[in-house]
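Minutes, methods subgroup
Present: GH (chair), OT, SY

1. OT presented the first of two proteins processed in the latest run. Sequence and structure tokens recorded below as shown on screen.
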Amino acid sequence: ELGLYGFEATLIPVLSFEFISLESLFEKLSHPECYGGLVFTSPRALEAIKICLKDNSKNKAWSKSLKERWHAKPAYVVGKATASLVEEIGLTPQGEKSGNAEKLAEYICSREKPNSSALLFPCGALKREVLPTVLREKGVHLESLTVYQTTQHSDLQESLSSYFSQQGIPASVVFFSPSGVRFCLQHIQKLSGDLINQIKFAAIGPTTAEALGGAGIPVGCTPETPTPQDLAAGIQKALHSQNC
């Protein structure tokens, strides 16, 4: 998508994920009758389920009855990437146009009755409290289970140093998560030095933009929706405004 605007994009992996509590996750998935539905705000939560389903006995149980029983309940998702993974495990996503946790929380509250069965929320250790807080205030029960931990990618520093030494200061840097900002920004600041003001920083959504702002970095672009198309258009507009 960026290439269509004549940009050359370099992808640098920032995060590594360690999956945890998978037995607890499948134990909960084995009891759909205890829950009103599922909530996913990250593709990693679906990856955790897919790892569970690599086990033959678990896969049989899922295919035989669990998938059908969960299919009768809503599977709320925050965006398209997560939605496509929900479809891969045989469920139907709802709310994928939300784009962020705040809007997804509003969507869920508009469809769930207060004090009904809890929604199961497999999530990461660094999850924000926005969605749980909004649902709690509206009386919608959410049962969170941490199924992955986020750490800095082992090659991050080396990858960034290599990029800057070979290609110089980038026209734009895009962040896709607050964790990415936390692990990456200090290295970029060090490598850029006084030239950091030349870089247009982009954030995939409001949460990431908030993390950049909190670190004192002006955000040149936050796309209207977290899609490749809107991101590319937003970067084009931000760079065009300063004739890059």
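2. SY then presented the second protein from the same run.
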Amino acid sequence: PDLNGLMSASIGSAMRELERQIVSALAAVNANAPIIFAYEPIWAIGAAQPAGVEYVGPVVQAIRSVINSFTRHHGRTGQTKVIYGGSAGPGLWSGSTNGGNPLSEWVDGMFLGRFAHKLEGVKAVVDEVVQSLQKREG
């Protein structure tokens, strides 16, 4: 099967649903208010593994496109961030658990869900984020 075609169709399907939600949320808040969108595919919620960065990245890129279009057309001035959530854990931010494809290239942050229940998981993720910030600065 054409995996790129399947991935593209899946991302298109997600965006048809997400676009309405994003525009509604942006329209409901003051134009200068900050807003954070948290994204996780419904099929990844509660899954043992997070959604792959090869899927999340293009969806987040499409989410940003919707946000940017709304901002241009409606004069939105508030800061808007996109984070990944839920099943994120150690190795996802840096890409060490998925072949070097870091989530940090696509999102502004992430929330940890069940990995926040164990101190060592939180520490590992915080260490990854600190290391990535040090690389960007240096």
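Chair's summary of item 2: Strands lie at 35-39, 80-84, 109-110.
Next meeting: continue with the remaining queue.
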